[in-house]
């Protein structure tokens, strides 16, 4: 599913849950071809996209102890709402959609090298379309 509207839809950073917010000196993250663009030094682990009404799960493999999740979300009809990211062995994180930051960056730590882990994206209230890119942020 192509999420052409994701360039317009956006999500805010949750500072208390491990998200970082771009400052004037940092590169602002964008969405390209429906997927969030991550910083060049981080190695991509994979991507997933879909509709969060029932939850979408995919399996990835960690290359280092820290994984970054870049999430862009929203819908044309309802650009605001929240998504919950559940990563195996981690506390669930809630990410808002339809705000001025797109995409968000959420960090998850303490992965053994080569460990497989699941990521589930589900809606908190309104079903929303989303695109997620995972990277190795261990550097």
Largest sheet: 4 strands, antiparallel
N/C terminus separation:
32 Å
Contiguous helical run count:
0
The total beta strand count reads 10
Overview in brief:
The protein has strands at 31-32, 35-36, 43-51, 56-61, 67-74, 81-87, 93-97, 104-108, 116-123, 129-136.
Helix-strand layout with pairing:
Layout: E1 31-32, E2 35-36, E3 43-51, E4 56-61, E5 67-74, E6 81-87, E7 93-97, E8 104-108, E9 116-123, E10 129-136
Antiparallel strand pairs: 1-2, 3-10, 4-9, 5-8, 5-10, 6-7, 6-9
What does this structure look like?
By secondary structure, the chain is mainly beta. The protein is built from no helices and ten strands.
List keywords for this structure.
139 residues; mainly beta; disordered N terminus
């Amino acid at each position: 599913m192509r999420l052409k509207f994701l360039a317009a839809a956006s999500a805010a950073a949750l500072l208390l849950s491990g998200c970082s917010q771009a400052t004037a000196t940092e590169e602002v993250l964008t969405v390209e071809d429906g997927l969030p663009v991550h910083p060049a030094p981080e190695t991509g682990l994979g991507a997933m996209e879909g509709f969060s009404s029932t939850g979408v799960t995919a399996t990835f493999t960690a290359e280092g102890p820290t994984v970054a999740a870049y999430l862009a979300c929203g819908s044309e009809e309802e650009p605001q709402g929240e998504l919950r990211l559940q990563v195996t062995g981690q506390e669930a994180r809630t990410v808002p959609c339809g705000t001025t930051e797109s995409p968000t960056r959420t960090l998850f730590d303490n992965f053994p090298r080569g460990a497989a882990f699941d990521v589930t994206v589900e809606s908190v209230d309104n079903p929303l379309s989303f695109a997620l890119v995972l990277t190795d942020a261990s550097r």
